[in-house]
Fold Magnesium-dependent phosphatase 1.
Amino acid sequence: MWKMGRAISKRNKTSRLLRAELLLRPIISASASWWLEEEEEKGLEMEGDRVKDEALRLIGVFEVLPRLVVFDLDYTLWPFYCEMRSKWEVPRLYREAYSILHALNDKGIELAIASRSPTPDIANTFLNKLGIQSMFLAKEIFSSWTHKTEHFEGIHRRTGVPFESMLFFDDEYRNIDSVSRMGVTSILVDNGVNLRELRIGLEKFAEKSKQQENNEKST
C-alpha cells in the first residue's frame, strides 16, 4: 500500500509539473520571441549604422559629386512591384537602401524618383509608410513607354539640375540605355541598390566629369 501511495503521489507530482509546463510554455515562447525580435532590431540598427558610415566614407572620397541622385523604385529601392501589392501592406526597402539614402541626404546631395509604376498611389503610400517621402526633391511616378526619358525631362524641369550632373540607378537595361543617351550617368543594379553599386556610380560619375572637363580644355 505504501509503495502504491508513493507511486500515485509521484504520478500526481509529474502531472502537476506537466500542467505547469503547458501553462508556462506560451509565456516562455512569447518572451523568447520578444527577445529574438529585440535582438534582430538591434542587429539591423547596427548594420544600418555600419552601411551609412561606409556610404559617407565613399561619398567623401570623391571630389566631384552628382548634384542629384535619381532612383527607380521597383527592384531598385524595394524588392517588389507596386502593382502587385496592396497599399495596406507594410513595405520594406532593400537592406542597404535606407542607409544609403540618408548618407546622400546628409552630404547635401538631392534625391529624386523616376518610376514607371502604373500605381503611383501605392508607391506614394509606401514612401510615406517608410518615412522617406520628404527626402525626394522630385518624384516622377507614372506609366510610360519612353523608358523614362519623360520622367527625366520632368525631373530636370522641377529641379533645374542638368542631366550631366545626375546619377541614376535602375534595374532595367532599356531604361539605363535611354537615360544614358540624355547625358545622365546611369548604373544598372542587379539586386537592389547597395554599397557596391553606389561606389560604381560615384566612380563612373567622377570619371565622366573628368573626361568632360578634359574635352572642354582641349577645345
Q: What stands out?
A: Residues 2-8, 32-43 have pLDDT under 50 and may be disordered. The longest helix spans residues 2-61.
